[in-house]
Every structure is written in structure tokens, then in C-alpha cells.
């Protein structure tokens, strides 16, 4: 996670892969690698790692969220919404993951103001996610109608 926050995605991917080698039954490390793959726009790999994470722990909400975002990246909006809803149902209501996934659902549904509100709320709770959410915030802002 430290490598992600510094923008070192290749190093983060290497670290996650090494973690999997050391602990191949830990669903969290598969999800972590899947998130890095998503950030690198390697959506098939992200989906595969999220699937493995879910296989190891079917109640791990973050893995459904990762798979949902990757599904959206690969063009599967319906699957993305389904996964994000599952993620939300499995996570604590006030978690940043819920806010991220609620924002993604709103974004996919064309409610860009609601997506922005969700993601801005996430950043109030967890400012370190700015680099990950900023591209999505910019996309949503660009889709809002121009003001007077």
C-alpha cells in the first residue's frame, strides 16, 4: 500500500506477488495485487486475482469491490454494479470501501454529482486515497453540466 500511495505501481505489484508466494492462501494479498493491476489498467489480471480472493474468502467485501471496478474498466458495467452492491453489503457501512463503491455505482448510473459526493466524503475520511480517486473525480466533474 505504501508503494501505491507513492505511485510506484510496479514495485507494489512486485511486493504483492512476493506476498502471494509467501502466503498463497491469504485472500487479502490477492485482492491487493488485484487492486494494483486495476490501477495499471490490467483488468483481466485484476479480475482473476479478485476471483481468487473471493474463492479463498467469499465474505471479503473489498475483493468484490476490486472486481467491480475492474469489470467496469473492462466494459462490464452490469457486472461492476452487481459486484459493488455485493461489496457494500459485506463491508461496514461507514468504511471507505463502501463510499468508493457507492461512488462507482453512481458514476456508472450517470449520477456524477452523487459519485463526486461519495468520493469526496471518502477523501475526508482517508486523504491518502487521493491519488487513486482523483482520476475518477476528474472524470465525474468533466461530465457534470457547465454552470451558469
Descriptive overview:
The protein is an all-alpha fold. It is 76% helix and 0% strand. The chain has helices at 2-5, 9-22, 27-39, 43-56, 61-73, 77-90, 96-108, 112-125, 130-143. The longest helix has 14 residues, at 9-22. The termini are far apart.
Low-confidence stretches at least 5 residues in length (pLDDT < 50)?
none
Return the domain count: 1
Q: What's the Cα radius of gyration?
A: 15 Å
Average pLDDT, to the nearest integer?
94
Distance between the termini: 41 Å
Number of helices: 9
The CATH top-level class label: Mainly Alpha
CATH overall fold name: Serine Threonine Protein Phosphatase 5, Tetratricopeptide repeat
Query: Which architecture would the CATH scheme give at its second level?
Result: Alpha Horseshoe
Protein structure class: mainly alpha
Give the tally of β-strands.
0
Strand content: under 5%
Profile the largest sheet.
Answer: none
* SSE pattern, N- to C-terminal: HHHHHHHHH
Range of helix content: over 70%
Name the CATH superfamily assignment: Tetratricopeptide repeat domain
Shape: globular
Amino acid at each position: 500500500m505504501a508503494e501505491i500511495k507513492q505511485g510506484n505501481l510496479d514495485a507494489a505489484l512486485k511486493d504483492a506477488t512476493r506476498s502471494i508466494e509467501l502466503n498463497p492462501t491469504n485472500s487479502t494479498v490477492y485482492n491487493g495485487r488485484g487492486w494494483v493491476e486495476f490501477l495499471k489498467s490490467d483488468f483481466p489480471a485484476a479480475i482473476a486475482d479478485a476471483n481468487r480472493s473471493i474463492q479463498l474468502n467469499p465474505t471479503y467485501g473489498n475483493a468484490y469491490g476490486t472486481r467491480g471496478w475492474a469489470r467496469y474498466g473492462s466494459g462490464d458495467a452490469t457486472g461492476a454494479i452487481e459486484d459493488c452492491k455485493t461489496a457494500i453489503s459485506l463491508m461496514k457501512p461507514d468504511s471507505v470501501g463502501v463510499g468508493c463503491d457507492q461512488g462507482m455505482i453512481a458514476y456508472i448510473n450517470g449520477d456524477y454529482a452523487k459519485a463526486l459526493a461519495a468520493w469526496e466524503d471518502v477523501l475526508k475520511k482517508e486523504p491518502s486515497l487521493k491519488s487513486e480517486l482523483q482520476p475518477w473525480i476528474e472524470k465525474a466533474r468533466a461530465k457534470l453540466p457547465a454552470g451558469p
